[in-house]
Every structure is written in C-alpha cells, then in structure tokens.
Amino acid sequence: MRSIALLTVAAVAAVWAVVRHLPAENEAVAETAHPQQIVGVSLDALDNGHALPVSALRAVLDTKSGDLLDPTNLEHDRAAIRTVLEGRGFLGARVEAPTVTFSGGGAYVVFAVSCGTVYHFRDITTSGLNARDAGLVTLGAWDTANPERVERVRQALAEVAGGKTVIATLHTDTAANAVDVEFSIK
Prior knowledge:
alpha/beta; single chain
C-alpha cells in the first residue's frame, strides 16, 4: 500500500514538473507574434456610424493583420480613409490618429472615424465659357459633393479650352452642408 502511495506521489510530481515547464497560453502567443506585428485592425465610428462604408474603407488600407507596424502606412491609411469619405460627400469627415495597443504579443490598430454629414452641390456657375463648353459641366445642384467629379469636369473643360487654364473654385458653406462651384477660364 505504501508503494502505491509512493508511486502516486511520484507520478503527480512528474506530471507537475512537465506542466510547470509548458509555456502558458499568453507565452505561446508571444513566441508566435512579434511585438510589432499587427494582430488586428478595426474602424471605430465616432458618430452614429450609419453611413460608415466599412468594406470600402478596409479596401484602401495598407495596414493588415500579420504585417509589421509601420507609421508611414498608418498615416497613408488615415489619408486614404478620408479620401474615400470625401468622395462620398462627407467633406467634414474626421479620421483621428490611429490608436495602437499592444497586447498578447502583438499590436491592435484602431482608426476612429467620424463621417459627419453629407455635403451637396448648391450653385454651379461658369465664367468665360461659351454655351457649348458650359454643357460639359455635368454637376447638378444637390448632387452629392464629390471633389473627384469637380476635377473630372475641370479636366474636360481644359481639353476644349484651347490652351487656356481652367480653374475650379469651391466655396464650402458648413452651416448648410453645401458646396458652391465656379468654373472659370483664365
């Protein structure tokens, strides 16, 4: 009986010694993830988030899980998020500096985003254009304000301007969430 008790104690001690030298769960993660390796990237809506186009924003991010943390990519991503939102008419969008948290041997990156309200074109005017060229202005009042569309129209006007410079001037009325655009030839 005494030998069974001794064998039991020896077996328990052996198991305890083996378990004691196994890495803990968080130690195993730390060994597989470099401290500067990105474990997760998320977007956090600061306002109601009803219009946050998550899939479109994720598509422009250079920062991905598994990559090493790169401040240059984070700043690029911040600008890219803002560009996507502005292209959808959120001219007052804010993208905060990303928050980076280190946990479990890796980095978690969070982009805090506030879309704000959608801006619309209000008054579209032209000066120095003939009637035919003014027909190239395809922006309409109360269309969603989109800087890329303004630039496309400006370029189309420049192609027919005969070497003259075409300028697009935008006036933003934040109280009305409206943008007035004037195209002029110099």
